[in-house]
Amino acid sequence: MQILDGKLVAQTVKEDLKQKTDILKREGKKPPHLAAILVGHNGASETYVASKVRTCEELGYQSTLIRFETEVTEDELLQKIRELNQDDGVDGILVQLPLPAQISEEKVINTISAQKDVDGFHPANIGKMIQGQPAYIPATPYGILLLLEYYKIETKGKHAVVIGRSNIVGRPISILLSQNTPTGNCTVTICHSHTRNLKDICLQADIIVAALGKPEFLTADMVKDGAVVIDVGITRVPDAGKKKGYALKGDVHFETVAPKCNYITPVPGGVGAMTIAALMKNTYLAAIQRN
Amino acid sequence: MQILDGKLVAQTVKEDLKQKTDILKREGKKPPHLAAILVGHNGASETYVASKVRTCEELGYQSTLIRFETEVTEDELLQKIRELNQDDGVDGILVQLPLPAQISEEKVINTISAQKDVDGFHPANIGKMIQGQPAYIPATPYGILLLLEYYKIETKGKHAVVIGRSNIVGRPISILLSQNTPTGNCTVTICHSHTRNLKDICLQADIIVAALGKPEFLTADMVKDGAVVIDVGITRVPDAGKKKGYALKGDVHFETVAPKCNYITPVPGGVGAMTIAALMKNTYLAAIQRN
Known about the structure:
Two copies of one chain form a homodimer. With 291 residues, chain A is of the alpha/beta class.
């Protein structure tokens, strides 16, 4: 059993991007510039955005953090996005989700220029990804592909079972794994809350991507020997024994599933650790396409 | 075993659209207007486009057929598309595929305004479809959904196996069947040329969509009793006994598979018969969104 070490791979990706950014600067070109919009004071969102801004600094990227109070109107937010779309100095734009109820996430995402949509949530990016055109792949599925690539995990002809059909993880990774690419060509089954016989389906899987958001849902009896298990879940579960009062749990019951696997991602330090690296890779791509 | 009669359902859809178009006209609004571009003299393309134009006439739609010689440059074609995008009188634009080698189909599709892309091939439409936003669904998968709907075939919780991952059929129908909609909520497995044990996978299927383009590929030993079989294939197979010198064959070996099925589409007269009706439905939607 080998751990798919998201921290290690993320570090490798980031070092590569830092080197490339150094080269850009030496050539007199401007470094990638990410603009992040944060609305309100949600704790998790604050943490994520801070981490993204910090990573920009590490890599030598430029970053701009734009904050709005919870009460901001949809119009004000959309207006700011349009300004950033027009701003030639900005390569990538992200709006940290979730947003307050008065603001349509759909409108926000559709308003971000597809060329600057480094989160890969814009319909035009999703559509291009599906058609095999160059596109920004959403950070979490992109992170999974980078892990598979780094560890040279064979996907061709394998049966991948994806549990969860969200727009940001389950759906795109199910598509990416079945495409005709070096990290694709799987037979892919996508499962969700209406799936019957989920256990039987999982037992056929060479690769399982658990992305349903239920802590420790995938248990050893659902996994065949030698499987590759990718755990996308990350839920705070109360744990009095921990300093913070909670433990982070994935969608996989790691202790019992891990011994059966050829490869497995831990939580934390697996897929989650990859997402910011993937976002930084998209931001770099956005910058060189505009340079 | 019941035949899913594409001709009958298409007729029902078209009658409904004709009535709605009559109402538009009575209200003094303009009828839907489809502009079709045909390049060169490919026999099958000529037939398809003629049939689309004729159906427009039947329904009281306006149609414009624009023809180019095979030698047309990419620029000329794109310029015409841009004109049609700007033309307020035109609701839907389709460019009949395939195109000659000097013209990029990708560029052509990306140039059609997403609001007028009644074929549903534009990345922004595909992306919106995936995110569950209002979008034009490509005609063939849309036709399949209309068939399932008409015959009230339960999809929720069923295991659907889609054979083929093309951008215009296999991929979108695999997504649509797994979405949280009245004709979705299937567990969906998408299979393709790299799939191993295809027979075993098909034998698990409650619903099979055969969209690989190999005549009579799906045989009785691959289908479980009571399955629903949707045959998307349509290939001309030489047949000296036929007046035209060929017979139309689907991807399903109908004679042996049909007796095992609860429902099956014939070829011709199944999915193929639905596609123009689905295109007309998209064109009507385009028109009322612009009225």
